[in-house]
Write a structure and sequence with these properties.
Helix content is 27%, strand content 25%. The chain is α/β, with parallel strands linked by helices. The strands form 7 sheets. Strands 13, 14, 15, 16, 17, 18 and 29 form a 7-stranded mixed sheet that branches. A hairpin with a 4-residue loop joins strand 17 and strand 18.
Length: 545
């Protein structure tokens, strides 16, 4: 958590002026500890940012059952100890121990958030340091504190990795063969127990992202009778933008996502037409920076955390989660996006765990490893995925149902696809069959026949995730109507409020919608960001009324 030989010292351990150090210490509570005392231990749900006045604190990865402890870094006078988990609510995964009599000041998480809201200069210094430390820890022995073991073809194993990467968790993944568990077999583990997550050396068999969130302190926990100003349901570009604008403008904001922040945008290998990125940006990088920005402004992010019901409770709203917990809020913005469509083919569900993918990122690329693949779809996401896979050594069959590639795809993508020798485009074609043993091996295309394929990447659109909102006015396809588009209005609740629905407001007052889930949205990343931020303006008007 302080600088290491491989890291960038000026980011991880910034030099503070006398004035900066004095202001920083103003947020802390003094404490003296003896040599060998721990200031926090791995597994602690709540811990503090530590300001070292004199003495020394060492950061330790505790011993695991297969390896001894490791000292990660040392922090001396006029430095601070902490990393990104202080902002996202994650429990401590390392320990802090005094090497000599030491005087520190403890800055609680609530005081740290107050500091970041009130002092822009210190906020930027601390945020840079916490982010740089997290990046450094991902590459060192600290990664063993969260270790995944699973088969490379397993979608459950992939889900753990995607969850950890989307939330920027320090972790390590180990692939094992279907018949060879290696050293893990000596622990009495069978393939039925996979994937396994080792948290501080303790194994969790058949692990899921939800189990990890609970154990790591990332699941939602209400604080007494808390009422928040805004709950954003869905962590894609629209949801992240709404949460960031809401929190930055003083609203206590909670962001929920059923999987992990990012939505479909995080699975996009390259976005080339987003404002300000002339050389393109990966969806993962864009979402990563947005997630960090959300933490900076104090957004409380919870994932996987699925909302299953939204209903009025007097002048407030109750958002019920999948586990029965309820978040009470003054307003809500629904940005739940859409769920991926699937082809109606035999054995589809079999290969969803072993060869069928709905994203094309580095995670999926590692599974196909320069092998032939099939991409299905005729819009931008399919074109971007095809180019990304081809650029990384995969021969690609792009299967498009329509006869005109340019009807739904940007012209720059069409041109690049036509010039890419590793991509074969099949217009007016359909995938009609899947074959393989434990994993996908072959795909049948009606216009071509059977082709070898280690992966099938499906980009055929999505259906709006609105089934949990039966009381809200939707169009025939399930998209939410908003603003002047609301067709079904209760005279009672609108007349009582003395107004019509605000822009982005649904048929239920103080519930708004933005992004792909909204009828009439542009279905583009930049448009979703704009809608999310614009919806917050209506939230303020609703709260003021």
């Amino acid at each position: 958590m302080a600088s290491t030989p491989e890291s960038t010292p000026d980011l991880q351990r910034p030099t503070l002026t006398d004035a900066q150090w004095e202001r920083l210490c103003g947020f802390g509570v003094a404490e003296s500890v003896a040599a060998g005392d721990y200031l926090f231990r791995s597994g602690d749900r709540d811990y503090d940012l530590l300001l070292v006045e004199d003495g020394e604190v060492e950061i330790v990865r505790d011993s695991l059952f297969w390896i001894g402890e490791a000292v990660i870094a040392h922090s001396g006078p006029r430095t601070f100890v902490g990393e990104l988990g202080l902002l996202n609510g994650q429990g401590a995964f390392l320990s802090a121990r005094a090497t000599q009599p030491t005087h520190v000041l403890r800055v609680s998480r609530s005081e740290l958030r107050r500091l970041m809201a009130e002092d822009d200069e210190l906020c930027d210094i601390i945020l840079h340091a916490l982010w740089a430390r997290r990046e450094s820890l991902r590459r060192g022995p600290a990664a063993l504190t969260l270790k995944f073991v699973g088969q490379s073809s397993s979608s459950d194993f992939l889900a753990l990795q995607r969850f950890a990467e989307r939330l920027d968790l320090v972790h390590k993944s180990v692939e094992v063969g279907p018949e060879d568990l290696g050293a893990h077999a000596k622990l009495g583990v069978s393939t039925d127990d996979l994937p396994i997550a080792y948290i501080q050396g303790e194994p969790i068999t058949r692990a899921t992202p939800g189990m990890l969130a609970e154990r790591l302190g990332l699941a939602y926990e209400a604080a007494g009778d808390e009422v928040v100003d805004l709950v954003v349901v869905g962590g894609g570009p629209a949801g992240l933008a709404a949460a960031i604008y809401g929190a930055s403008e003083g609203l206590s904001t909670v962001l929920l996502d059923a999987v992990a922040p990012g939505g479909q945008a995080a699975s996009t290998s390259r976005i080339e037409n987003f404002l300000g990125f002339p050389f393109g940006v990966s969806g993962g990088d864009l979402i990563g920076q947005a997630s960090l920005q959300a933490l900076k402004f104090g957004v409380r992010v919870y994932a996987p955390c699925e909302a299953v019901k939204l209903e009025p409770a007097g002048d407030l709203l109750d958002i019920t989660l999948g586990d029965g917990r309820i978040i009470r809020s003054r307003t809500a913005i629904v940005t739940s996006g859409a769920s991926y469509r699937r082809l109606n083919l035999e054995r589809w569900s079999d290969f969803e765990r072993a060869g069928i993918y709905y994203a094309a990122t580095q995670l999926e690329l590692r599974q196909v490893s320069e092998s032939p693949v099939v991409v299905v779809g005729g819009a931008n996401s399919a074109g971007q995925a095809s180019l990304y896979l081809a650029a990384n050594g995969c021969p690609v069959h792009l299967v498009v149902r329509g006869t005109d590639l340019g009807s739904r795809m940007s012209s720059y993508l069409v041109d690049r696809l036509m010039e890419e020798p590793r991509v074969q485009v099949h217009l007016g074609s359909r995938v009609v069959g899947l074959d393989g043993a434990a994993a996908l091996e072959r795909v049948r295309i009606d216009s071509l026949g059977e082709v070898d394929a280690r992966g099938l990447f499906c980009f055929i659109g999505a259906d709006p995730a609105t089934g949990w909102l039966p009381a809200l006015d939707r169009d025939a396809d399930g998209f939410l109507r908003t603003g002047t588009d609301v067709a079904v209005q209760s005279l009672e609740h609108w007349q009582r409020m003395g107004r019509e629905p605000l822009p982005f407001e649904t048929s239920l007052p103080r519930v708004f919608a933005a992004g792909d889930v909204r009828r009439g949205s542009m279905k583009r990343v930049a448009a979703a960001v704009g809608e999310g931020s614009s919806a917050v303006a209506s939230v303020h008007r609703a709260l003021a009324g």
